[in-house]
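Standup notes
- HV: blocked on the assembly model, inputs below
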Amino acid sequence: MAKPQKNFLPNAYPDPAHLRLEGLACSRGARQLFEGISQTLAPGEALALYGANGSGKTSLLRQIAGFLPVEVGTISFGDTRPPRVHFIGHADGLKNPLRVGETLAFDAALWGAPKNAIDLLPLLGLDNRGWQTVGDLSAGQRRRLALAKLCLAPRPVWLLDEPMTALDAAGQHLIDTLAGAHLAAGGILVASSHVPLGFATQTLTLGAAS
Amino acid sequence: MSVFWAICRQHAVLAWRGGHTTLAVAFLFIGVTLMPFGLGPELALLQALAPGLLWVVLIMALLTSLDRLFQADYEDGSLDQMMLMPLPLEFVVLAKLLGHYIALVLPLLLAVPLAGLLLNLAPAHLPMLLLAMLAGSPALVLLGGIGASLAVSVRRGGLLTVLLSLPFYVPVMIFGAGASRQALAGEVDETRLAILLLISLASLLAAPVAIAAALRNAVR
Amino acid sequence: MLKALENISALYANPTRFMQLAARLHAPLWALALALLAYGLFRAFQVPEDYQQGETVKIMFVHVPAAWMALFGYSFIFFASVTALIFRHPLGHVAARAAAPVGATFTLIALVTGSLWGQPMWGTWWVWDARLTSMLVLLFVYLGYIAIWQAIEEPTRAARTAALLAIVGFINVPIVKFSVDWWNTLHQPASVSRLARPALHADFLYPLLIMGVAFLALFFALTLTRMQMEILRQKLRVRRMRTNQGA
């Protein structure tokens, strides 16, 4: 039982990425969220973003993901070509009418993973829930399911927006396991949180400077 | 390529499971059923008006489905994921539009012959009518997608989508209903069919680019 | 903190120079527009009655320039939007937004005067004449554009979405015109299919051109005034933010 699970944890990434933020600033509407953010992440490093609600954690993650345009400062990935990024936000992108198993199968097809994605369920702590519809899952179970794509498609940059929300102790341990394997494989990770993240090698508290 | 089909299939499955297919087809029949009450039950009159009425009802049924094209994805965060998929956003959009076409437009086209019988169309009239609808309906979905993508960040943007899409539907409607009317005379209207195909082709090239731009703007 | 506020004002296009220019242009432009309008209307009423249409021919002097301005207004929105998107000049967004209700109003005037002008000829208030129909669709295009600005709250997103709509809508306008013309000529006898234009000899041409220029000046005067208002509104918004943030 433990062996197929291991296959889903990331091992060495063929294209490890660096992440360099230089003099980054962001404003939404007429409000300045943050400015002068400079941070460098080497492969295997994780940055934890702390800060009050509305301090710009989500905006910073969305800038790194490429959703929000960078108007002041630069974001570079060391490589000229931006590497593949995983982004998991508050909205989980799950479809209520689909079954859990179908969601995994679609995810596997969408992200180009092998077909036996259903074997991922024990790792996510969703054993025997393959036939359940996503709409019937609890908030914590949904978050676990949303993590599936991290395992299905190997991508060297993970951006997690408050990953610990709604998760129980086992779920938080799952995040730690995934993050640990990801970092050991040479990935980099940026996560926002209101609780301390054990795997973080660097921290940045937004809203404190200004 | 398998990514393309996965997106297409997921959209179609969701449209079907969400009951959107049933609703659209029901809408078509509701529209057709209301016509004789409004116009009177004279069969000759109904037949003369049938091609145009069927086009109007088809477009209305399609318009009601447009806000489901991207709105749910915007609200549940799937739109963010679409930006990161291993396929350019333009093709992701195209896959979803194809899924929408398969799940909604094809069932509507299958329902059109039956709806036509209710309006006293003879079976001989149907091939030309369906041909015109087949030629024009890709443009309807593609152009409607532009309206849907522009209104995607607006809560309850259904009516706004309809307002934005309407001007784009005028040419398709003119040539589509025109070609279908010729069906009553038993003629094949090659010119109008060619223009319909041209509009569909031009929409195929232009719409995904415009939609992708609008969606990128929506996730900012 | 101050940097952010600078960003916002850059968003609304370092408007100081524009506002200075606008303040200088404002009065002369309005004076020119009103003078031309008065002179054009005076000339129009001196035009002899048409032997077929009688007095109603004078509606033409409002209808035709209004229809010109309806098309000009949308072209203006298109070019302003392209400028805003390509050269990242936010003043383009402000100009496009300001021009939209002005253009829509000219479209509405063209529709109403067209109906009034046609009534004695057609014996009915509305005929699906090719020009009137195209104008009606154009009005929907304008309404959609205005609705986008109203529906999207976040200003930068609203601006970019509206600009995209302006561009695809602009491509659509000639296609609509072509299809409506095609549709119309096949379904109606040519004699009633368009508003009969009297031969444009000098008696008609000059008042018409004067009215055209007057409407153009009016369009720019209205648009300029609305742009000034919009920029002032944004300044006010930023000032309120500043007080709220206590900086």
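- HV (later): unblocked. Chain C has a mean pLDDT of 84. Residues 202-245 of chain C form the longest helix (44 residues).
- Next: hand off to the docking folks.
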